[in-house]
Each structure stands twice: as structure tokens, then as C-alpha cells.
Amino acid sequence: MNDASRRERLASLKAALDPDLVSDVGSQEIAGVRPSMCVTPSDGASLAVVLAGLHERELSALIQGGGTRMNLGNVPRPVDVLLSTAGLRGVRRFEPDDGVIEVAAGTPVVEVQEVVAAGGWQLPLVAPGLASTVGGVIASAAPGPRNLGLGPVRRAILGLEVVMASGERTRCGGQVVKNVTGYDLAKLYTGSLGTLGVIESAWLRLEPTPRTSCVRVIEFSQTSRALELGVEVSRRTSARACALLSPEICRRVGLPHSLAAAWMLVAEFAGEVAEVRQDAAFVEAAGGASPESAEGEDSRIWFDRIGTELIAEPEANGLRARIAVRPSKLAACCAPLLKGDTRLVVMPGMGLVYAEFPGSGSHAGGPRAVEDAISDAREAATIAGGDLVLEALPVECKHGHDVFDDCGPVQSIAAALKREFDPRDVLNPGRFTGAL
Amino acid sequence: MRSGTSSDWTKKTWIASGCPDPGRSTRPHFSQRKPELEPNPGCTLVAPPSSAFYSPEMQSPPESLCTALSEIVGSEACLSRPEELFVYACDGLTLDPTTPGLVVLPQTTEQVSAIVKECRRHGTPFVPRGAGTGLSGGAHAASNAVVIELSRMKAILEVNVPDRIAVVQPGLVNVDLSSAVARHGLFFAPDPSSQMVCTIGGNVAENSGGPHTLKHGATSDSVIALEVVMPDGEVVRIGSQTGYGPGYDLVGAFTGSEGTLGIVTEISVRLQPLPDGVETILGIFPDVVSACHAVSQVVRSGLVPAALEIIDQRTIEVVEDSAYAAGLPRDAGAVLLAELDGARCALKDQLERVRALCLEAGASDVRVAQDDEERALFWRARKGSFGAMGRLAPDLYVHDAVVPRARLPEILAKVSAIAESYELTIANVFHAGDGNLHPIISFDRRDEDELRRVLAAGSEILEACVAVGGVLTGEHGIGKEKQEFMKLLFSDDDLDAMKRLRRAFDPAGVCNPDKIIPLTRGCVESAPSAREAPDELVP
């Protein structure tokens, strides 16, 4: 399709849509592309109309929720429209007696948390930022520290309403906590970065609000001891989050630490009173202490801040890589990364290593430095038999790279799924593995 | 095996699909019994006949295929004699048996791959099978199909204690895995009632649950990676032992796909630590409704028990008359079996909270298992319920549906009313903690009228569950049994989305075909194109 034809089709789409849904997107680049206009459907029916219109005219869209993870994934191929889910907002049904809730996809997670908290529940979705939406968290399925205790994103999802790339409104799963009715499409959509369908709403499982919570910290000078105890602490029954932070990260989140410390273990426990006390005592017996704001709801600030760090832009246009390994391979993964200015956040119970290579110091800024950092990250992942994602790096450095690990032969199945669900490449084209 | 004219087939599918209502759902009626069904007093589990289409032209697999498969697995592992094939005519769903064309028993992934390639070369569909304990007909195979039975692939390939991962073959019996890793302080969480017999591969196919799903999750929460023989015979590995492999969640999509997307030949699972402590409680209630209220209160209170099971009076009577007797009070309207596990230091407080909630809901007594022996006794009564029922009549229909937990009292009253209206006796034993019902009907299928009433009652129960926001199955799967009922819950567009997944894995449609997806469309008006016939097979 040439540019003139594309402009015609875009104009045709704009003319066909309710003008209240269409807005100017400005000249800024989003995720490395410049859509021509923004469309914000107000409900599922208008979302279906928009997608049908895009499909029919062979146009494409970049999907945006709260905009907190737009740089996740590969640089999309040029898109025509920014499709915002911000208009799909609100709690549709809250069943406090059953511990489930139905939410429109564009609703910020923090808003849902407030609603369910009033009923004695918590939503087991970890929101990386205040603007993060339910649909965005599901579509990205990027893990956060509290997924240790809350379980992965997929476990929270009971059912989804999804609008297909060609505009059909569909649903999968249901509102009950146990369900094997038909294919589990919800698992397929989770983490698919919006490339198979646009989530309209979700039925979610809730977890009870814990009776109490607290945070404890320990400093380590030796990596091996830090990792060993980190895994042990993560496996305590009330462990909700556990992270090992390198000194610079400690500084950023406001955790004071001694100069000799190479690592700070931060552990959040939540649950029944007796088990939280027992687990906190375990850490204290190992040399742990209570930081400021260590008890109850106040203690949430530490992993709220750590979570924010994990989506912040790397310093000086550097790189942040996420490497997933089996816990027994953490030491092998960390060893090659412990050089220069590399900052690490390790979640030992989840087997996750976040390595930030700043664009200054030993990795001087610019594309070449990021290339070196990518090589270092790949080397560490290979040594440890891990799975690598280049989570954050300058857009110009993404070209020529697949930020996701090579899927190998399985990529053909992924490609077949993309062809089945989005044959005209309407949704986030090029953003997923293998540039799907 | 099955004969009939095209017009006979058309009539059956019309009856199966029923009259469409406006909107999303249709109303299948499975009230017609297939005329050629033979009485089978030895079978204990049945379900409504499906509307599966069996082409009158279906032929057995060609002799050349039998020869080729014998060369792959050896002649002793390639079964073709009628008396050998008869054993594979059904699984736990004993109605509508269909004898497969051939059965092969491979021992390696390479053999499975070679078998599938030969089947493809001959244009022959194939059906994977584990222990054959499935209750929805997922392992039924038509006369032109090859059953690939995986029970000989039963090894534990690796136990990685530091990472809490096990790698096993699909034919490994569920309980054998937990037994093998218990000495490391670990266990495999999914514990269906058939766990002494069912296989891990079958658990993957059905996304099996069990009583402890409430806290510890179903099979999909434990599986992290799979080796799969695709429907074209290629071997792929999906997922990752790290739990964060790149790409789409193919493991999540594959688990629960009932053997229709490929054949799993190796399974990596997460193991969980054995709990520090366990407390098991038996609440005695005047009726099922008060027991359900207790469950609702426990859930609402913020407690997360490992299990919440209810057994009704009818079931208590049957169990206490059987070898599974556990000293349950015969005059109890219902008992609630609640289990708490976790940090020992926190259990006593939780136990007292459950006790208080039970008493508040109307329990006349709350017993706590004093030791492992008493705990095992409580569970024997629960897990032996179905077996105890087998004494009552030649046939047993074990329903499976899920409703929102808060709607349980309402649905149980509805089930009772349905039983009365059809002059049937229905017992209830179920996973109350996750709203998963198992109404059980004992009957004799040789009584045609009784069979008709059983099947009609089953349909009404499913419709009632869906009407309150429930779903068709929490554990048994769709298989053949409920594929036409899928239209009760899903629109044609919803089902089309499922078909897209299926086509991506199996474009040729040869891997366990004619399962899960209805064979007929729903409301004609909602189909993409108008059709003249009242119903039509879906291609």
C-alpha cells in the first residue's frame, strides 16, 4: 500500500468514526513510531467498530493502556493509529462474597485496588506505575516483586472479553475460580502484548487482604551468601516479595546501607500474624533488621519503590535486561554481571535478575556502549541457561535486535497463531517475539 | 461400527442442537438414546450421548498403516484384534463406546513422532490416551482412528530438588510422582480423585484439579514446560523451566486442550514443599445449605483453606454402608471437610476461626482430626464416595459443573428440585470451596425411560448452572460429553476464536478430532452466512 492510498484509507476511517473518539496524537514518537491519529473507544461496542474499520482498510494500530510499558517489546512496524483503551473504564461487577471482580480493561489497577480493599480483598496484579491499567498489566504480564507471593499474572485471570483484530467481540473463561470449559484462550492473550486481540474487560480472582505485613532487611558482603539466603527467605510461607539490591539501587529507593555492603536483601512478609512474626524472626536471626516504616501498611513503600525502579528508564540511555534462570543458576548468572557500573536487582525466589547497564562510566553512552551491554547480558543468560528480555534500551538501539530471546522452532507456532488471530497485522505489528 | 443414512444423521444433529434462542445461547436436548446402544451392566460411569457425527463411510485404518506402525513399536505393541481393541472403546465415559481402528503403545518420543507421521501419511486421525480415566469421552476414538496410548512412557526423568522441578513422562501415574519426591519434602499439587490411576499426561490434557485446587492450584499452575509431538509429527519444546520463556504462553494454552493440539511426551512441573503443618476439620450440619453458608463465610473471612469439601446426607448413608465407612453421623444433613495447611504456628488460630464460623452457620458439631490416621479416615470417606455409589445401581452419572460459590445453596436447591421432577435420586459430593459441583445419579441404563430422565435432568442441571454465571466443567473437561453444550456458554464468534487456536497447532484437523468444539453451529442467524438447513456441521 503506498502512502497516498494509506492516507486515503486513514481519512476514510476517520470519517467513519464518531468524532468524539478521534484526537490528535501530536508529533511525538511513541515506542519508536509516529501514529497519525489517536482513537479512544468509549466502550466495547465502539472498540469493535474501530477494529473492524482498521481491519477492513488494512490499517494498523499501536495499543496503549496507561502508557507505562510502551517501550516493552520490539519497535513496531509503522502504524497508522494509536488505539487507547483509556475509555474502557470502570468496575463492572464486584462480588465480595465470592472474591471476584469484573473490570473494564482501561481501568487503572490502583483504582481497582481501592475498590476491593474496601471489601477486605486485594487484587493480585502488580501495577508497575500509577497509570498502569488492568488490560495493560495482563497484556504485558511483566513480573513484579510481589508476584512471588501473589502468583503470576495468569493465575489472577478467570475470564476475558477480547475484541478480535477483525472486530468480533469474544469472551473466554468465566467468572468462577475453577474452569476447564474449552480452550484456555485467556492464557494465550496474557503476555501477548496485544498482538492477538484487544482486551475489553477481565474477570479477576481476588486474594484476601493479609492480616499483617512487615519488611526486614539484611546486608551482605558476599554474593553467594546473599543469593543462598535470598532463596531461603523467598520460600518462607508468608514471603510476598524478596529482592537483593546492589548499592546504587539501595540509594535510589532510600534504603541506607553501609559502604561494605555489596547487597541488601529486602523481604516483605504478609499473611497470618503468627507466620509473619515467625518469618520476620528468621530474618532477624540471620542478622536482619527493620528499616524505617517496617510494619503494617506503611511497609508497602519499599517494594512500591523497588517496583518503580524496575520500570524506570535506565540511567543515561543505558540498558536494562531481565534474565530468568532457575534459582540454582543465580550465582552463575550474576557473576559475569558484577563488573563496572552494572546495577542489579535480583528476585531470588522467582529466579529473576534485572541488570541495568547505565549509559555512562564503563559503558559510555551511545549505541556502541549499549551493544556491549547487550552482549554482556546475552553472555550471562547463556552461561546460566536463562531466558533474556531486553526490557529497556534507547529506541535507536533496538533496530537490528529482537529484544526477546529466540524462540527457536516454536516461533513457527507463534507465527501461525498471529496469522490466525490477526491475519492483516492490525495489532501492534512487529512488537512481539520474532517481530510478530 | 455405526451405520445409518444421511437423513438419520441429520435428524440426530437437529435434536442435539435444539431450538436457538435469541442471543448467545442455545438449548441442547440430549433426550434421544442411540438405538444401537447395547446394555452394559458392568459400566459404572455414563454421560449423555453426544451429537458426534460418525460418517457411515468411515473405514478402518489401512493394512499398510498397521504394518508401518508395527515396524515402529513392534508387533506386540500394535493392537488390531477386536478383543484387544474392545478395551479401548471408551474411557470413563462409557456411553457411546466406539472401537478404534488400531491402538499403539509407544515407549519413546521418537516412536510417537514416527507414529504421528505415519498416521498423517495415511490420512488417519489419531487420539492420545493416558490411563483412560477421563469422564468426558476425550479419549474416545472413531473406527478410522489410531489410539496412541502412552502408559508405557512412565519414567521420572529428573528430580531437581534445589529448583523444585521434576521432569516426567506422560504415562507416569499422578500419585507416583508425589510418592517419589516426598523424601525430599516435596509434592506434586494436583490431586484428582483418580490420582491412584490417572497419568500426568492426562492431567495436562484435562488441566486436572482435585480437592486441593482451592489453595494449590490446578495442573496449569504446576506445569512450566512441555515436549510436544505436534500433529505433523515434529517435536517441539514449549515453555521454559525458568517459568519466563519468550513468546506466547503456549504451555498455558496447551494445558487443558484435551489432547487436541498435540501429544505431550515430556512434562516439566513445579513441585511444592510439603506443608509444615496440616489440620483437618469435619463440620456436621443439619443440611447442605447451612454447610454451604459456612463455606461462604470461610471464604469471606479471608482464610485460604487447602480444601473445602461437602458431602450430603445421601452420600453419607452410602459411604457408611460401604468399605469406605468413616464413622460419619448418618443423621447429618451434610458434612463439611475443611483442611488447613501451612506454617504450623498459624494453624491453631485458623482452625478456631473455621470452627467458630461452622458453629455460627449451624453446625451441631465440629471434629478435628487428632492424628494422621483420623485425617486419612475423613479423606477416605470423601475420596471413596464415587466408589461407594457404584454399589447402588449398574450405572452412575457423575456431573461436573462450577458456579459462583455464593450461588451454591441456590443451585443445590435447584438440583434437588430437578431430581424430584424427574423422579431421580441425586447425591451431592463436591468441592464447595471453588463452587465445583458433582451431582451424582445412580440408575440403570437398560431402563430406557430412566436413562432419558437422567440425561434430561443432566441438561437442566447444566443450564441452571450457566444461568447463575457458572460454567460447564471444572475438572472433567468437555470432550465428547459436553461439546454441544458449549453453545450454551459461547457464541459462534467465541468458538471461532478457539478454532483459530486449534488450527494454528493442527491445520489438518487430525489430532483427536471432533472433541470440544460443537459439531453443529448455534443460532443460524448469528452464523457468518445464512444457511437454509436448521443446523449444519461445522467444517
Please, could you describe this protein's structure?
- The complex is a heterodimer of chains A (436) and B (539).
- Chain A is an alpha+beta fold.
- Chain A is built from 15 helices and 18 strands.
- Chain A has a seven-stranded antiparallel sheet with strand order 12-14-13-16-17-15-18, sandwiched between helices. A five-stranded antiparallel sheet of chain A has the order 5-6-10-8-9.
- In chain A, a hairpin with a 4-residue loop joins β5 (91-95) and β6 (100-104).
- In chain B, β5 (156-160) and β6 (165-168) form a beta hairpin.
- By secondary structure, chain B is an alpha+beta fold.
- In chain B, strands 15-12-14-13-18-20-16 form a seven-stranded antiparallel sheet, sandwiched between helices.
- At the A-B interface, β9, α7, β11, α10 and α15 of A face β9, α8, α9, α11 and α17 of B.
How are the strands of the largest sheet of chain A arranged?
A: 12-14-13-16-17-15-18
**Distance separating the two termini of chain A:** 19 Å
- Could you estimate the helical fraction of the residues of chain A in percent? 25-40%
Biggest sheet architecture of chain A: 7 strands, antiparallel
Structural class of chain A: alpha+beta
Largest interface, by Cβ-Cβ below 8 angstroms: which chains and how many residues each? A-B, 84 and 86 residues
Feature tags:
heterodimer; A: 436 residues; alpha+beta; five-stranded antiparallel sheet; globular; B: 539 residues
Layout of helices and strands, plus pairs?
The complex is a heterodimer of chains A (436) and B (539).
Chain A: H1 3-16, E1 22-23, E2 37-39, H2 44-56, E3 61-64, E4 81-84, E5 91-95, E6 100-104, H3 109-117, E7 121-122, H4 134-140, H5 147-150, H6 153-156, E8 157-163, E9 169-173, H7 185-189, E10 198-205, E11 207-208, E12 212-220, H8 223-234, E13 239-245, H9 247-253, E14 263-271, H10 273-285, H11 300-309, E15 319-324, H12 330-334, E16 343-347, E17 352-357, H13 367-383, E18 387-392, H14 395-398, H15 411-421
Parallel strand pairs in A: 2-4, 3-4
Antiparallel strand pairs in A: 1-2, 5-6, 6-10, 7-11, 8-9, 8-10, 12-14, 13-14, 13-16, 15-17, 15-18, 16-17
Chain B: H1 6-17, H2 63-73, E1 78-79, H3 82-85, E2 102-104, H4 109-121, E3 126-129, E4 146-149, E5 156-160, E6 165-168, H5 174-181, E7 186-187, H6 200-206, H7 213-216, E8 223-229, E9 235-239, H8 250-254, E10 263-270, E11 272-273, E12 277-285, H9 288-300, E13 307-312, H10 313-320, E14 334-342, H11 344-360, E15 365-368, H12 372-383, H13 385-389, E16 395-398, E17 401-402, H14 408-421, E18 426-430, E19 436-437, E20 439-443, H15 448-467, H16 486-489, H17 492-505
Parallel strand pairs in B: 2-4, 3-4
Antiparallel strand pairs in B: 1-2, 5-6, 6-10, 7-11, 8-9, 8-10, 12-14, 12-15, 13-14, 13-18, 16-20, 17-19, 18-20
Helix pairs in contact in B: 2-4, 9-11, 9-14, 14-15
